[in-house]
Amino acid sequence: MSKAAPRYARALFQALQAEGSLAASRPVLEALGALSPDLVSLLDDPTIALPKREGALRTSLGNPGEDTLWGRLVTLLSRKRRLGLIEEICRITLEIERSEAGVVDGTVVSQSPLEPAVVARLEGDLSTSHRKVHLTNSADSSILGGFRVKLGATVLDATINNQLQQARKVLLSA
Amino acid sequence: MIDTVRPDEIASLLKKQLEGFAPHAEQYETGIVLSVGDGIARLQGLPTVEAGELIKFDGTAEVFGLVLNLDEDNVGVVLLGDADTIREGDVARRTKVQASVPTGKGLLGRVVDALGNPLDGGPAIVADEMRRIEVKAPGIMERKNVHEPMQTGLKIVDALTPIGRGQRELIIGDRGTGKTAIALDAIINQKGKGVYCFYVAIGQKQSTVAQIVEKLRAHGALEYTTIIMASASMPAPLQYLAPYAGTAMAEHFLYNGMHALIVYDDLTKQSTAYRQMSLLLRRPPGREAFPGDIFYVHSRLLERACKLSDKNGAGSLTALPIIETQAGDISAYIPTNVISITDGQIFLEGSLFNSGVRPAMNAGTSVSRVGGDAQIKAMKQVAGSLRLDLAQFRELAAFSQFASDLDPATQKLLARGQCMTELLKQSQYKPQSAGTQVAVIYAGANGFLDNIPVKQVTRWEADFVEYLASKGNEIPELIEAQRAINDVVKPKLEEAIRSFNAGFKA
């Protein structure tokens, strides 16, 4: 991860918030935040002339005017030769937005896909007044039963595998 | 036999062992390995991990790491096991446990690694308690002055650089000058004195440690000794941790009103291991490429050796750190650091060792800053004149080759110095009691050996020690009981020496 991208993202988030266009800009942020690595490397490719790369990015943004926020951002990135950071900047801006709104993204892994109602119940149980948990469910056949939730660096392990490990420890220490 | 084992019996046994076990969802914090190599891993995540905390890697083998660097965007971890099993992208989890080791009498007679795991093929360690490897040294109010002798059994050390219980006395010298020998003699001499010993072998060959274990066993010293081994083939973090682990094990005795002795053999290799770790963790190098906190590494270790006040149980922990010098250079970085931290040093010289003076202690540069408080009065009485004799001898030693041209007084001083130098020689693994030492030095310092040829002094000393032990005259015991050369001891001691001299054929 670039060290500069979070600084640009924080600045973009604050500018969009001040301008009141955060919600309107979300589709653009999502689209640019999901740019393919090939496109990102093209934006950074020194064999392509800088005005051409800048023009490509402007076109993808719908040719914003020089006096608009997005227009000024592209000019700045072009001047600093950091056009390739646009994908990371947009992704982090979205993360900042979710974080400011108290939304925490996480994953729940289980033996087979969980019913949406079960995921929703888990989200409700893990959410508090200050944070709203949003979970993505995935399946892992190595899990014997139960589930494992990962929220950032924190893991809540309620799998049968983990409980068997606990029983093993008890038996070994007996 | 197999027919007699019934499945229901096994099931009931398992059920009994699992009684009270309640499975529960576990919450822990994780990090992802960004890079790994040279025994160092960098992890992303673990936002609330603490410095010095153990983390566990979820790999094929159970490998633990010790958190040393808390950077802005990653955590620097030294690996305490096989680094080959860890890959980039692996997950590591917090244990919320600071590195700690088992302690207690279950460790006596055992050889363990820096984490307290047995290395001698014996059964699992039965620990009284777990103690943290890194703890703060006791404060001033918890201590008292060092006042009890911790005899090494070596005449020259006990007379000239007395060590007290709770003291830190550095043993310093080039390789092959007898540093380990002094430490081992000190351990062997603790037999029956209620002092528990810990020998921390850092960066040594495993064969050398095996020999030391056998020597201690042969002299009956292993039963009260624990060997903590971080051999040269073990990872640098274990070599760095071993002295702290050994100290934690010894502190169990210190804080329970008992006495312990710990030998760090040697701290030079520990500093080299720490330098390696620090450079790999990209900490800025300083003098001799050591990191800036190398002094603190040794000071916080050696400050843990102390004599506790009566209120705190009056236990003691004596430390004998060993430092290896290069070509006798005590002004190098690590030697000067450790000299300034300790309460004195025993300086061993290669030239003395090669000329047959063993222990090869340089009486001029060796000091004990605790001094006479760590000696019985009798030893103080004889050591005073001994120190003077040796100092005068050193001043005149350069003229010894012109001996025949010198005046009688100078010749007498030279002869006395040579006699005392011979008298202070002592074989390895033959520690002497304080009473015996006093009797021998008294004889030399008071002219009873003036008529004995210098070449015969060693034989005289060996025979006299045997005479004191076998005759049943109880002179050493009397000296130790009276603790001074007084009107009761003096006539009997002199009579014994005269009686022995009469029968000694030079």
Number of helices of chain B: 15
Low-confidence stretches of chain A: none
Write down the overall geometry of chain A. elongated
Average of per-residue pLDDT values of chain B: 92
Query: What's the average pLDDT of chain A?
Result: 90
* Percent in strands of chain A: 15-25%
Question: So what's the oligomer here?
Answer: heterodimer
Class inferred from helices and paired strands of chain B: alpha/beta
Largest interface: A-B, 15 and 17 residues
User: What's the total number of strands of chain A?
Assistant: 4
| Class computed from helices, strands and strand pairing of chain A | alpha+beta
**Lateral strand order in the biggest sheet of chain B:** 8-12-11-13-14-10-15-16
State the CATH superfamily name of the largest domain in chain B. P-loop containing nucleotide triphosphate hydrolases
Question: Could you give the count of β-strands of chain B?
Answer: 16
Tally of helical runs of chain A = 8
* Main β sheet profile of chain B: 8 strands, mixed
What radius of gyration of chain B results from the CA coordinates?
A: 27 Å
What would you say this structure looks like, in words?
The complex is a heterodimer of chains A (174) and B (506). With 174 residues, chain A is of the alpha+beta class. Chain A is built from 8 helices and 4 strands; from the N terminus they run ααααααβαβββα. Chain A folds into 2 domains: 5-98; 103-173, no CATH class. In chain A, a hairpin with a 2-residue loop joins β3 (146-151) and β4. Chain B is built from 15 helices and 16 strands. Chain B has 506 residues and is α/β, with parallel strands linked by helices. The mean pLDDT of chain B is 92. In chain B, the strands form 3 sheets. An 8-stranded mixed sheet of chain B has the order 8-12-11-13-14-10-15-16, sandwiched between helices. Classes of the chains: A alpha+beta (174), B alpha/beta (506). Chains A and B meet through β4 and α8 of A and β1 of B. β4 of chain A pairs antiparallel with β1 (26-37) of chain B, so a sheet runs across the interface.
